[in-house]
Give the backbone structure.
Amino acid sequence: MSGGTYAFTNANAGTGKTVTTAGVTVNDGNSGNNYTAVYVNNTSSTINRANLTVSSSNVTKTYDGSLTAAGSAAVVSGTLFHNASNGGALDSLSGGTFAFTDKNAGTGNKIVTVAGVNLSDGNSGGNYNVTFADNTTSTINRATVVFYGTANDKQYDGATTDSLSGYSLTGLIGGETLNAAATSANFIDKNAGVGKTVNIGGVSLSDGGNGGLAANYTVAATATTTATIAPKQLILNATVNNKVYDGTVNATLRSYGLSGFVGSETVSGVYTGSASFADKNVGSNKGVTITGITLINGANGGLATNYAVSTAANSTASITPATLTIAGVVAQDKVYDGTTVAYLNTSASR
């Protein structure tokens, strides 16, 4: 005998399977006419399960302090087949539980475990020997934190450099903390102004408390804050005229100069204000307040807006007593009493 066609009565794995036989050629030298062939099914055949190794597709997530992994089942060894006993549908995988083996950031080297994947094969999963394999090439990206520095206000000094008095970080996971440092803080320009932008550079992170690891975080590319550059107070070197008491606080400015500039800068001043003693009374080296000096741009980059002149008492001068002449005094007549005492005659008129 030779040839023939053979077929399992269903495609699912199992033992004691039935195999049908047909179309066998009987070689008897008479075209098989010497025999009447009767076909009997084989009922003790076996379809062994196919071997299938299931893992997870690569998982990528941002560090969140947990082991959770949004994986999906993937065949890494073996083949899923179309099942003739299930309408020709392709066997498939669904569901499953996936988890990273540790929570920390890493690129292309993180391990994701796989379990509980459902196998739809028309035979309750019985057509495959399923082995689960860890995925070892997944990724946990670092979480991004934002650095907020507290910049110090300063007085105009001709430079953009500034310093930080503190900082905060946002974007940390749970109760984790990190330490941070910055290597530079610079105003966008050197000139005086309120709420000026300060660019912060060289921010670095180091491990903190409550499990905060610097390796799990990265700092946002730019960090800025604001602070104020106050005008530099110039020293007013003024000369004020002494005067004779006149019952007023008015003073006369004779000359003045300005000092305290940054580097070689200069600005000019125009005096349109007033000078006033602290009070009207006689005294030496009395404080004099000078107001109304308007600054204008000078040489070598000197900008008036970068400077100010204090209105505090910034010079001294003296108020001397006024001369008072008393004349026409009339004394009362008296009887000799051996003294020189005289009494004013208040009733006399002069």
Summary: The radius of gyration is 51 Å. The mean pLDDT is 94.
